[in-house]
Fold:
Amino acid sequence: MAAIEPDAVHVYEPMRQWSLGLRAYPKMARDLWRARDLFFQFVRRDILLRARTSFFGVLWSAAHPLGLLITFVLLRRAGIVNPHAGGVEYAAFAGLGVIHWSLFSGLLTQAAGSLVGASNLIVRARFPSEVLVLAACMRVLVDWLFGLVILATLFVWLGVTPAWTVVLAPLSLLPLIFLGVGLGLLLALGALPLRDVLHALPLVLTPLLFLSPVFYELPSGGVWEWVRIFNPISVSFEALRGLTFAGTLPDPALFGFWLAASVFVCLGSWRVFNLVIPKIPEYAS
Amino acid sequence: MSATDYVLRAEALGKKYCKEFRRGVTYLGFDLLRSAIGLGAKASLREKEFWALSNLSFEIRAGECLGVIGANGAGKSTLLKILAGIVEPTQGRVEIRGRSAALIELGAGFHPDLTGRENIYLGGGVLGLKRHEIASRFDEIVAFADLGTFIDSPVRFYSTGMYMRLGFAVAAHCNPNLLLIDEVLAVGDSAFFVKCLNRLSVLKGQGTAIVAVSHDEIAMRRVCNKCLLLKNGNVECLATPHEAYQRYQAIAQTTPISSLNESGDGLIRVARVEAPESAVTGDPLEVLVHYEVPKGSIEGAHFELNAFNAQEELVAIFGTLSLGKRLPTLQGRGLLRIGFPSVHLTPGAYRLAGGFVAADGLGIHNWSASLSRLVVSSPLPLQGKCWQPAEFKIEGSPC
Structure:
């Protein structure tokens, strides 16, 4: 038998997590670190399953953004829409936007459904359930990397040369990723007892897509100025495009604020997740 | 052993549930809000809430096995889920020293589209094993599950038995300090059952503490050092398996039969049943059935009798149908005398169900789910579900 490690005493009591306060974070981090093997197992499982149960596998993840991109390029050619692209080749401009919009919306959607799909596991075994949500997020990141390959191909084909600052571009995505993972944790939690969350998510994402500079630059002035400041996607996307095409750095105050806010949301959501998840197996089926 | 030498300690455990889902979610919301402002969850019972478990305290040391027994709804599974850390207790505290593995349902972490091999890694990971730990036990697990070439097939192609063997094999080889098993002793065929019992006994020998929930009395008597008998969420007794099962049977005897629960086409009626309330294993027994055929006559009917034990398991079926005989033509009122030269039931409380079956062996004239109760006793320490008289002789010497 395995010898009992000195710190391996587990205590289950009502509302135990609540009494820990901020001291909970080191414990949560330790538990998560110990479950890293399980995390990779889930990621591996998801990738294996997708490869095994579908013919086109990872290609499907690119189908939706590519479809949207082609639609907008055709609409623009036909003169039906005339979006502002800031002087960049439109397909490259919109391609960059749509791949990263898929990253954000994918994080939310995949995370939201991650616990519902594994509820039989949650009600029968004890492990840090965050790993299920994080594994779903990891899958979205893999899809995103694949999307980047397509994007790079598109750039080469169109003859678009990015600015040297493009090497910093991944940093501009940090607010999006922290926000996506943080909100994803909350959505996953909410969807377990109430599936309404899954139904309501597209209702929020669709308007958000059109209020963000995905296929066009947002108009300036008036109410749009507020949208640009208070829509974190807009802040991230403007930074991303500045770094990719124009070689300009983002506004440090605005970007710094949203980076800090997204980290705060992510850590806060993690704690809420940790507090509420012990209550969930009773209500999940 | 020192006083702290326990693997599991439960103190004044209690668990409250709500009978309605929506109301339960609302209460959960309120409790979370109350906790957020430092008030804690509401302790008293609200509408539609009930205590599934209350005031449970016990301790288990390394190498001990505690059996949890009781009727359906007594709180056995709830207790196991709390001990596994899946469900949070409403009151009290559980302390576990070391790694615990729970088999709440076999193969919890398995995915139908993955192969047996891949699922061993996944299932082991869910039970808290590292990849290299699983790799080092992989061959042992595969040998125990005995799946042959199926190990590389997706588990959706497995039979129920194979699926369960794999689940037990993974849990039984992760060398936990505490193993929690719910209703898994009754899985698989008899050869695997014996293998499971032997593996449990090896684990006990290595110092693993076990908490087992099962309706299988024989398995529980073999594996457990002590048994916790639950009744409506309360501890009825915590004693040796023998004492606990005696107490369990005593409770089953005093529980009133809800109704006579009769059914059938009514061509024959049972007016009265005369049967002794107690019997001794090995002694003769007689049951008298007073019947009435209201109209005309019935030809070629059968009489069947079933005996159920305290765990509501069907332990014996006897009647003319199984003997290949028929009752003579029945007309008007009469008396059916059923004689048993010797009772082969082992000590315990039994419920007899039975009635008249039509000549085709399918139609039911009259069926009563509870003809009578019978308490069987014996001066001998008999175990198992039936008594088989036997002689044991060593060739050449008297025994």
